[in-house]
């Protein structure tokens, strides 16, 4: 009886309206060029959709929305170092999706690998052996530092951290983890335990037990923490850190710090987990930041640029000794989509582009050039700019206040340069463009930075 009623109700539901809407949206996706009318429709639908069905909060935070919400920049297409909004205005992308676009937007080689794979098989059976996963894992064993050898594939950064933490827990029964203040490792409950920002953690306490946060860069504090944990019988399982803190505002490690952390881990029999979700894939001037600091972790986490800005993809790579704990039962940690053929094709092509176009080296060179130029500009604005720091094309510009940072990032945006920096968090903004960015584009960024600061000064 009840089944019958449900079926009748279902039959009664009229999908005509929503399907008309769906067809309109599909026709927009299909278009090579959109008209002015289309652009207006898309903008209206986007702003309304965010307000009514996504989250109206976003409309208050984005610098792409004017205060009266009359104007909203809605993105529509991208290529190279740039993306365009629906009205055709072009922006140089110095935010780079927080480090997604290392090989540029829609890199042709990555596109080709993904579309070739797509035209044959998109996702894997989940039962037969999928070839690209094996090949990508072999490639990673080759290019990652030291004796990192086995890979587990995931879809995002936070998932790579989850996998790393579970791997570490499988490896030993120690329950203490050392993380650092200002760290960002993701927002799912496991990785959030390692993330340091109170505002993101507080509503979800308690986190996974056993995490201790100590100041990034303070090796004495780390030594003491290792010691006291051992004394009370709560030995450290692993230290987890970003070699260079990204979200924390591009915080570089003090000289020798990472090597000393490695030594402490060895002394106390703990693992070292490097979260290179943002610093990996050539971002900081070497394939991995670990290479640049000559330190080999036991577990390496990758995501963001790993999928070449085309596919969501990530990986956790570990030594055989550590990964071995998953050999007896590989189903102890699984994900349906992780390591799917499209993602693997994207990652393989991405690594090919990084190698053949020498993008890690390019990142080092262009990064040094950009850092120097930005510092030259900043010298004339000591009242506004506090410090500019970075390595490779991961650069942080720190202002004296949030307000100045927001004004500058908004000014840059209005002049066609996108950098991170929101209404609530702009004291330091990151500049992390595609590693393929041209020198002309870099010069335009510097020129615009100067213009915006000058204008700010005269206002
Ligand atoms: C972005 C980021 C993450 C989280 O990645 P998601 O894909 O957003 O889950 C983790 N660690 C670092 C260092 C990151 O920059």
From TrEMBL:
<keyword id="KW-0663">Pyridoxal phosphate</keyword>
<dbReference type="InterPro" id="IPR015421">
    <property type="entry name" value="PyrdxlP-dep_Trfase_major"/>
</dbReference>
<protein>
    <submittedName>
        <fullName>Putrescine aminotransferase</fullName>
        <ecNumber>2.6.1.82</ecNumber>
    </submittedName>
</protein>
<comment type="similarity">
    <text>Belongs to the class-III pyridoxal-phosphate-dependent aminotransferase family.</text>
</comment>
<dbReference type="GO" id="GO:0030170">
    <property type="term" value="F:pyridoxal phosphate binding"/>
</dbReference>
<keyword id="KW-0808">Transferase</keyword>
<dbReference type="Pfam" id="PF00202">
    <property type="entry name" value="Aminotran_3"/>
</dbReference>
<dbReference type="InterPro" id="IPR005814">
    <property type="entry name" value="Aminotrans_3"/>
</dbReference>
<dbReference type="InterPro" id="IPR015424">
    <property type="entry name" value="PyrdxlP-dep_Trfase"/>
</dbReference>
<keyword id="KW-0032">Aminotransferase</keyword>
<dbReference type="GO" id="GO:0042802">
    <property type="term" value="F:identical protein binding"/>
</dbReference>
<dbReference type="GO" id="GO:0009447">
    <property type="term" value="P:putrescine catabolic process"/>
</dbReference>
<dbReference type="InterPro" id="IPR050103">
    <property type="entry name" value="Class-III_PLP-dep_AT"/>
</dbReference>
<dbReference type="GO" id="GO:0033094">
    <property type="term" value="F:putrescine--2-oxoglutarate transaminase activity"/>
</dbReference>
<dbReference type="InterPro" id="IPR015422">
    <property type="entry name" value="PyrdxlP-dep_Trfase_small"/>
</dbReference>
<dbReference type="InterPro" id="IPR049704">
    <property type="entry name" value="Aminotrans_3_PPA_site"/>
</dbReference>
């Amino acid at each position: 009886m009840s089944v019958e009623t449900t079926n009748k109700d279902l039959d009664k539901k009229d999908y005509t309206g929503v399907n008309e809407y769906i067809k309109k949206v599909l026709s927009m996706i299909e278009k090579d060029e959109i008209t002015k009318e289309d652009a207006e429709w898309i903008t209206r639908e986007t702003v309304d959709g965010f307000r009514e069905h996504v989250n109206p909060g976003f409309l208050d935070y984005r610098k792409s929305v004017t205060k009266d919400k009359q104007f909203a920049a809605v993105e529509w297409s991208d290529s190279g170092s740039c993306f365009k909004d629906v009205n055709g205005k072009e922006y140089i992308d110095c935010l780079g999706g927080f480090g997604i676009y290392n090989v540029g937007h829609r890199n042709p080689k990555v596109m080709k690998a993904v579309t070739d794979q797509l035209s044959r098989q998109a996702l894997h059976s989940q039962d037969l052996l999928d070839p690209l996963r094996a090949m990508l894992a072999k490639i990673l064993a080759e290019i990652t530092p030291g004796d990192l050898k086995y890979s587990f594939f995931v879809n995002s950064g936070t998932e790579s951290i989850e996998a790393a933490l579970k791997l570490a827990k499988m490896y030993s029964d120690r329950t203490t983890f050392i993380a650092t203040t200002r760290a960002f490792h993701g927002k799912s409950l496991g990785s959030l335990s390692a993330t340091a920002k109170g505002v993101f953690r507080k509503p979800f306490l308690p986190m996974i037990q056993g995490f201790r946060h100590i100041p990034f860069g303070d090796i004495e504090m780390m030594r003491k923490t290792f010691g006291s944990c051992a004394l009370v019988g709560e030995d450290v399982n692993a230290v987890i850190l970003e070699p260079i803190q990204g979200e924390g505002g591009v915080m570089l490690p003090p000289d020798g710090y990472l090597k000393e952390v490695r030594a402490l881990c060895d002394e106390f029999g703990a693992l070292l987990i490097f979260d290179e979700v943002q610093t990996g894939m050539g971002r900081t001037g070497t394939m991995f930041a670990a290479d640049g600091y000559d330190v080999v972790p036991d577990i390496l986490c990758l995501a963001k640029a790993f999928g070449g800005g085309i596919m969501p993809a990530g990986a956790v790579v570990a030594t055989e000794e550590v990964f071995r704990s998953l050999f007896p039962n590989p189903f102890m940690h699984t994900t349906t989509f992780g390591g799917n053929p499209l993602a693997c094709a994207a990652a393989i092509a991405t690594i090919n582009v990084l190698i053949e176009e020498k993008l890690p080296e390019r990142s080092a060179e262009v990064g040094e050039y950009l850092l120097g130029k930005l510092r030259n500009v900043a010298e004339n604005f000591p009242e506004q700019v506090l410090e500019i720091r970075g390595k490779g094309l991961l650069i942080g510009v720190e202002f004296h206040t949030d307000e100045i940072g927001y004004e500058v990032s908004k000014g840059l945006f209005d002049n066609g340069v996108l950098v991170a920096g929101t209404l609530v968090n702009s004291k330091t903004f990151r500049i992390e463009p595609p590693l393929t960015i041209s020198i002309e584009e870099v010069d335009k960024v510097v020129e615009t930075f100067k213009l915006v600061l000058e204008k700010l000064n005269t206002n």
